[in-house]
Specification:
The chain is α/β, with parallel strands linked by helices and 115 residues long. The chain has two helices and seven strands; from the N terminus they run E-H-E-E-E-H-E-E-E.
Length: 115
C-alpha cells in the first residue's frame, strides 16, 4: 500500500464544545463546523493534519485514518481477507473507508485520499 499520509486522528471527548475551544486556543486551529450529531466528527485543523472530535462514546482514541489511493485500499482489503482479519467498509460523503482492528484492538481506517 502506498501510504499518502495520516489523514486524521479521531478522538472521543466528554464535552465537544469545550474540546473545540481548547484545541482552537492551544493549537490555533479552527473547527470546520460547531455542531453535528455526536456520532459524526467535527474536524479541527487543515486537511491532512486534522483531529476528528466525536461525542458518542467514552473519551479516548477512536481511530487513526491512513490515506491511500483506490489501488492501495484494494490491496489492504485483499490482505485482510487472506489473513482472515475482520473489517467493515463504509461509504462517507466524500470518500470510502475500510475499518479494522490492529493486534492490540486499536481501530485503523484506510481511506481513499481526497484528490
Amino acid at each position: 500500500m502506498k501510504l499518502h499520509r495520516i489523514d486524521h486522528v479521531s478522538l472521543n471527548v466528554t464535552d465537544r464544545p469545550r474540546s473545540i475551544a481548547w484545541y482552537e486556543e492551544v493549537l490555533g486551529a479552527r473547527a470546520g463546523r460547531r455542531t453535528c450529531p455526536p456520532e459524526e466528527p467535527i474536524f479541527i485543523g487543515p486537511t491532512g493534519a486534522r483531529l476528528g472530535l466525536f461525542a458518542d462514546r467514552a473519551p479516548g482514541l477512536r481511530h487513526i485514518a491512513l490515506a491511500t489511493d483506490p489501488r492501495g485500499q484494494d490491496g489492504v482489503v485483499e490482505r485482510l481477507e487472506r489473513l482472515a482479519i475482520p473489517y467493515r467498509s463504509e461509504r462517507h460523503s466524500d470518500q470510502r473507508s475500510v475499518y479494522f482492528a490492529d493486534v492490540d484492538g486499536n481501530t485503523v481506517e484506510v481511506m481513499v485520499a481526497r484528490p
